[in-house]
Amino acid sequence: MNGGAAPPSGDASVVVKRKRTPQTVPVNSVKVADQPSCGGAMAKNSVHYSDASFMKWTIADAVHVATHHWIPCLFALCLLFFMAVEYTLLMVPSSSPPFDLGFLATRSLHRVLEASPQLNTLLAALNTVFVGMQASYILWTWLIEGRPRATISALFMFTCRGILGCSTQLPLPEGFLGSGVDFPVGNVSFFLFFSGHVAGSVIASLDMRRMQRWELAWTFDALNVLQAVRLLGTRGHYTIDLAVGVGAGILFDSLAGIYLESRRKTATANGLASKHAFVA
Prior knowledge:
two-stranded antiparallel sheet, 10 helices, globular, two-stranded antiparallel ribbon, mainly alpha
C-alpha cells in the first residue's frame, strides 16, 4: 500500500503511481512552475518579466497618475529641472564667498540693520525671548504635563547638531551682524549648521498641533518665519541652515515618537507601569 493503490480487480501486484503535481516556486510574488529541465530557469524569467508592473500600464493609468498624484509628478519634473541646473551650474570659486539666495533676498534688511545697531539689538533681544518661549514650552510638556516627546526630540536634535557642527565648521558669513543679547547670549561662538532656533520652534509647533493648540502653533510658525528672515538679514545663518533646521525638527520629532512607542511596547511586554518607559 506504500506509494500507490491496488486496482479494485485484477492483479494486486499492479500499482498505479500517483501523478506528481509540479511544485511552484515564488518569484517576486509570482508562482512559477518548477521545471525539471534546464529550461525551467528560462520559463521562470519569462514569467517574471511578463508580469512586471510597468508592462501592465495603460494610457488610462498614466492619466490617473497625472490627475490624482500630481505632487509626485511635480517632484519628478523638479528632479529633471534641477539635474539640468546642477550639471550646467558654474561652481563658486574657493576664493569667493558662498552664494546664498536668502542673503540676496534680505539685502535691504541687512543694510537697515547695519545702519541701525539699536534696531539690530532690539530684534536680537526679541529673538532670544522667542527661544526662551520654545525651551519653556518644551520643558513644560514634560515636567508639568508628563509628555516627554518634545523634550526627547530636542535632546536628539541638539545632539545631532553638535556632532554635525563639530564635523564641518563653516566660515562665518560675510557681513555678520552680531549682538551681545542674541542667543547664545554674550557674542559667543556657535554652530552654523544647522539652525537650532528653527528646529526647536518646529518641535514645539508639532507638539502644539498634536494637542490641538492650533492658535499657539500658528503663532510659533509665524514667529519662526520672522526669526528666519532676521537670521538671514543679520547673516547669522545660511539659507541651508534654516531649511535643514525645519527638516531636523520634523525628523527628530518622528524619531522621538518611534522611541517612545518602542519603550511602551517593552514596558507592556514586561508588565511595567508606563512611567517606567519615561511616559506619564
